[in-house]
Design goal:
Length: 459
């Protein structure tokens, strides 16, 4: 079943990309900080990016770097970085819509509820925060819709193009038996276009060598260099790639990591996307031994959602009424069929199956753990709404082996997806018609390359 308590934005890189692109509040943007002229910053195929969108995104990033503005690139470079992110977003949204990906209003409401909850505020307070920051709630909803569309597109891409075989999992587990080492990495990418000319390659190589020299001399730390010079989508996060096990690192890079110490930076490496500098930030032992016993619970629930049309107070009142009906003798099954708004579990009498305490969020898990078997809870609040839960049972389960296999499958799949998705985005970006109306590229129009002419057939 879908994990309805974990907003898709909170359970994925999407929230991070929203924050990094400056599409969520948090940078203390106020209306007076934005230019009132709503002109076009770029044309992307049949869509446009407005100057106000670009200004808002840049202002949010500058707010996030308050007190660390020296780590940001010059304004014109930052503007181009952010504009490229917005261009990629427009391309992906158009691709999602063109392939039939859809997002419902209810899913947007659920995602917004999750964002509000993660900021420890209500949806109404979120509205007020946006208004104070000079942002439109409708624009905010639209940005959430776009990011959910992109997430669905990426998921569909993974399902259709990415597979991990049992043999790959077995090989990775065998390798892990010898080492449980994980590596935290960061990178700087100096990108090259498809079919780069010798001059473009030489220029990129000179640039990456210059960046390496700055880092080696201590004139700039790696994170600041990534923010200022990297062409990677994660440049504004200092190039951070997170923790990786060896099965998540391309084999050639993996051999390098084995020989490096924490803090070291590689020499420039030529890859399919361009030249890279890799930094080994930290190393840790993530090996596990012995059984991994966890407590699992089986429960069923009735959900009353909070949305734009149903306030938190209204949802709580309805949940109290439903709980009173059950206390008065109404059957749980009947109330589930009549009133639960979790359609996935409703068809199964509200059954959620077996789950761990933290699987559906701390509020829900803690409340279920506190119940006795067959006991019915008072309404429980979560980011999705209010739940009336009946705990069915609990058990101790050894999930070590299945957890390891699932984790390895996920990490291999994530590595493959990252490579294929980045290649796919470069392809779509290269095909897109992009007309820059601001910055250095304002006089240039990027259009799809002319198709290659067929070779003359022999006589």
């Amino acid at each position: 079943m879908n994990k309805f308590f974990a907003s898709p934005l909170l359970a994925s890189p999407v929230l991070a990309s929203l924050l990094a692109a400056g599409l969520l509040f948090g940078g203390n943007v106020r209306a007076q900080d934005l230019q009132p002229i709503d002109r076009i910053a770029a044309v992307v195929d049949e869509d446009v990016i407005l100057k106000t969108e670009l200004d808002r995104a840049i202002a949010n990033i500058m707010g996030q770097y308050a007190g660390r503005s020296d780590q940001l690139p010059p304004r014109d470079v930052l503007e181009r970085q952010v504009l490229e992110r917005l261009i990629l977003l427009k391309i992906q949204v158009a691709q999602a819509q063109g392939t039939g990906v859809r997002v419902t209003d209810q899913e947007i409401d659920q995602a917004i509820g999750g964002i509000a909850n993660s900021n420890k505020i209500s949806v109404d307070q979120l509205r007020q925060q946006l208004a104070r920051d000079g942002s439109s709630y409708n624009d905010f909803r639209a940005s959430i819709r776009d990011e959910l569309l992109v997430q669905r597109l990426r998921q569909r891409f993974a399902q259709t193009r990415i597979s991990v075989s049992d043999a790959e999992i077995d090989a990775a587990l065998a390798a892990q038996a010898n080492t449980g080492t994980q590596y935290r990495l960061a990178h700087i990418l100096i990108a090259l276009p498809e079919g780069a000319t010798p001059e473009q390659i030489a220029t990129a190589q000179k640039k990456v060598e210059g960046v390496k020299t700055l880092i080696d001399k201590g004139e700039m730390d790696f994170n600041a260099a990534a923010v200022r010079y990297s062409d990677s989508p994660n440049a504004l996060e200092g190039g951070d790639l997170g923790w990786r096990s060896l099965d998540e690192i391309p084999a050639a890079f993996g051999e390098l990591m084995r020989k490096m110490s924490a803090g070291q930076v590689t020499d420039p490496i030529r890859g399919p996307s361009g030249f890279q500098l890799l930094k080994l930030v930290e190393v840790r032992d993530a090996s596990q031994s012995g059984p991994k016993l966890v407590t699992q619970f089986n429960a069923r629930h009735i959900l009353v959602r909070i949305s734009d049309t149903v306030s938190e107070a209204q949802a709580k009142a309805k949940a109290d009424t439903l709980r009173a009906r059950i206390a008065g003798g109404a059957k749980f099954d009947d109330v589930v069929k009549e009133s639960s708004e979790d359609l996935t579990s409703q068809a199964k009498g509200g059954d959620l199956g077996w789950f761990t305490q933290d699987e559906f969020g701390p509020e829900f898990g803690g409340a279920v753990a506190a119940l006795a078997d067959n006991e019915i809870s008072q309404p429980i609040h979560s980011q999705a709404g209010y739940h009336i839960v009946q705990r069915i049972g609990s058990r101790q389960s050894d999930v070590a082996d299945q957890s390891k296999r699932a984790q390895v499958q996920e990490t291999i799949g994530r590595r493959k997806l990252e490579e294929e998705w980045n290649r796919y985005l470069r392809e779509k970006r290269g095909e897109a018609f992009v007309d820059f109306r601001v910055g250095k590229g304002a006089e240039e129009t990027t259009a799809p390359a002319e198709p290659a002419k067929p070779a003359a057939s022999g006589g």
